[in-house]
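Build the 3D complex.
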Amino acid sequence: GQQVMQIPQYQHVQEGEDFTTYCNSSTTLSNIQWYKQRPGGHPVFLIQLVKSGEVKKQKRLTFQFGEAKKNSSLHITATQTTDVGTYFCAGGSNYKLTFGKGTLLTVNP
Amino acid sequence: DSGVTQTPKHLITATGQRVTLRCSPRSGDLSVYWYQQSLDQGLQFLIQYYNGEERAKGNILERFSAQQFPDLHSELNLSSLELGDSALYFCASSDLWGTGYTFGSGTRLTVV
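Done.
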């Protein structure tokens, strides 16, 4: 079945440093979605990418969808303590989302 | 409040028992999804319902079953519980196209 791999598993940064998490699917995706889960919370939808090569920005967050629609990345510029949490990518196909295992981001103030 | 309501928030039960988790989707959403989250397995898709019909199935054990009722709320039934079933169970809902799931706050199940 479809597998979505995400790296790194953990990332610790100093406040102000940049952060990137990468997502790779074993199959071509119809779309990719990104979620953030704060410690003790539930996943919250951030964005969906649909088109090959698509790039979207939300303030300090930049999301990319690969040309082959099998990989994606999330880049955070100048991290803040409020960015702490686990970031999940989720690949969409056949009416279901397959989530990666997530990248836990911790930020040292 | 995300708009998706899950009850109960916490559940402690013994091995071999049966429990029912309940989910009310966000107003207007016809799709309901169930996910299991554990530390080592991440978010595992269990099952999806759309307007009362089963639409997709993931790695759901035979001991587990779900349904969606005419009022669109959904229930996940877990039976013959084992220690390994201890996890956080999330319900999510979405529109027809699945653009951005809205998750509930989850039910933390502890099997002792």
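The mean pLDDT of chain B is 94.
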